[in-house]
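Batch job 17 of 40 flagged for manual review because the log was empty.
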Amino acid sequence: MNPTFEASDNVPIRILLVDNDPDHARAMAESLERVGYTCVIATGGPEGCREIEQQTFDVVVTDLVMNEVDGMGVLKQARELLPECEVIMVTGHATVPKAVEAMQEGAFNFLEKPITPKRLQAVTEKAVESVRLRLQNIELNQRLDERFGFENLIYSSSSMQGVVERLKRIAPTDAGVLITGETGTGKDVVAQAIHQNSPRKKKPFVALNTGAVAEHLVESELFGHTKGAFTDAITDRVGKFEYANGGTLFLDEVGDMPMSTQIKLLRVLEERKITRVGDNKPIDVNVRVIAATNKDLEKDIEEGRFRSDLYYRLKVVTVHLDPLSSRRDDIIPLADHFRKQANRRNHKQVKGFSPALTKWLFNFEWKGNIRQLKNVVESMVVLDIDGVLDLDDVSPDFSDDAPPSPTVNSDEMSSLVGMSLRDIERWAIEQTLKISNGNREETAQILGISERNLYRKLKEFDLK
């Protein structure tokens, strides 16, 4: 079977043929089955409507003129019960105007009798392509929801809890957002989460790292250019603003944008119009801009490297992401998430982290933040041979940076002074549960007690 005739990897395209003339219906079915479609025949409008009620179809081919229930009735039924389905009308010459009316009501196309097999196959294939594209968009949005829905963001710290609560208030609006934080803290993920939870989610999300584009090409990337606008402009080019129209444009490392481009970006944000490089014709755009930077833009403004008017235009709302070393409660949940991702990507079955590695991960400084953590975990998964990650799986590159055994900082030490042994014991269990991501077996191993003893202590201290 031709793979283009499948709605997904394993489900073949199903077609309903509705016609008062059984011979004509069978002839159409034979023509479509020859190229790999699965066909069901209904000899009349009422039977066609019953089939639509009881089964699922990707395409409906129906005669327009029929007794009792005509093609318009079949179209209405399909629109209501099978919204992803495409309907093709079959009509005689005298009823072509009626078929055009049907297209205005949602029909995909019409076929005028007599119908040749090639014409039927060609129009049906176009309808199938439309269905397949719609299904792919639905599946893509579902995958994006799964990945970037707020409930699927990976965190445990109170710091990120506050960020997520803020994002929930920001996303439904159309306000511009400035995301700040060190490189690798997840600014791009937050930007996509805002888009995916906004009214613009079905429109494009377009990202541009302005720091990674040559200075003389930034304007072309943003606004597009016309043929001949500069030496290498051999064709017209659509810029990121046009491509993102109706959706969201994410400008990463916006602090690296040239001053000349900053002026033009400010004008675009205020006027909602762009002009391609080399052209004079303005083009209307409707784009939500989310910007991100790892720089101190207020300091850059003082030193003349960033425009204050653009800064305040971008930061209608701000979101700050702390470095990973400041939200250690997120380290183990994130590491475990990256382990599962790496397992899927590399066809591995690594079950988890040893207690010693868990402590190492929790205490490491992670100067590269989440990005560094992800790369380290994936590297360990790829190289692992025994199904459990341990210190021997850590790359030698990190040996000089490896932290000492878990320590308590001076503030925590001071807070423990004067506490009862019972309170210190409770504190130790709580902290160890955090670094083990709630894994009781690992917690017991780290503390050097039995799981039964740990369970008793959890009940005694009323710890969840």
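Reviewer: the log was empty due to a logging misconfiguration, but the result itself is present. Confidence is low (pLDDT under 50) at residues 1-10, 402-408. Unflagging and moving on to job 18.
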